[in-house]
Amino acid sequence: MSLAYSLIGGYRLNMVSIIIPVYNVEKYLNRCLDSVVGQTYKDMQIILIDDGSTDNSGVICDDYAKTDDRIIVIHTENRGVSSARNEGLRIATGEYISFIDSDDWVSEDFISTLINLILTTQSDMAGCSMEYCSNNEFRTKAVCNQDFIEYNRKDAYYQILNSTKIAGFLSNKIFKKNLITQYLDITIHMSEDFLFCAEYLRNVSKFAFIDCGLYYYFQRHQSDKQYLLQFDEKIFSLLIAKEKMIQIYILEAPECISKLCERYLMDALNIKGRYIYGKVQNEEQLVKIDSIIKEYYPIVIRDKQVRLFTKFNLFLTKRFPVQMLKIKANILKKGN
Fold this sequence. Notes:
Blueprint: E1 7-8, E2 11-22, H1 29-37, E3 44-51, H2 57-67, E4 71-76, H3 81-91, E5 94-99, E6 105-106, H4 110-121, E7 125-134, E8 137-138, E9 148-152, H5 153-162, E10 173-176, H6 192-200, E11 206-218, H7 226-229, H8 237-252, H9 257-277, H10 283-302, H11 308-319, H12 321-334
Helix pairs in contact: 6-8, 8-9, 9-10, 9-12, 11-12
């Protein structure tokens, strides 16, 4: 496709601003940045937000900026990935926005494929499937299907919730900057991607997807059994994110509420298991978790759309939260 470039209101049409938060990833950063600067699509602004790195990540960013004038480096205090992405959004000048994580990498035609998909289908968002990797080994081997699928807004809400290929990730999608009306919520540290996508879809008429694994997602923690068992104070924000998503889905895709409530309840049960296992004494959060379980458990158990196996899983997790958490951790370990 021949792409024409023009300026409207200070923005260059078809230019993509790629936002990459960077924090202590010196081991992986070159791989990521090489894949980005080597894109076949050249009209890019590459924004590197060094989020207070204490290793050589910031130096690596500066070195790349010296050799490529498309690269902008911002050094900040450590405020988290959402704050870093928001900082990138504030200075982005492209018509389109791409978010790439600094320990991941992308196919050389990642940007060109998604931009062409948006322009061909006149969509407001485009996405591709992912390849999952750990310890430099591919965990999936996707077959690239050159046919694309177009979804309306309601179907897109269903897909980001239910499709493992599409999901609610930011990094396997491209967004229109003028349709981003809300930045990422910096108080939410888990499922912040999903919440951003759900907010963004409110302004979308069409979403186009191609089942090609053009984004390589590197899983650093999934091989560690303790990752599921250990307590992280940020995990409680997962429940806040899901609560906000339920409010969005009630208005935009009410037919998906059953599945979302099921996941909300399971998250609350799993988090309670972590709190008990870790002997966490946060009374306010424990009260909130128990209130979610009390309200949603009977709703989900009585829901005819929820599978019997899922109900049994919920029952066991509610009855034996720590034991079920350990079982799930062991299953996760064996899967890796």
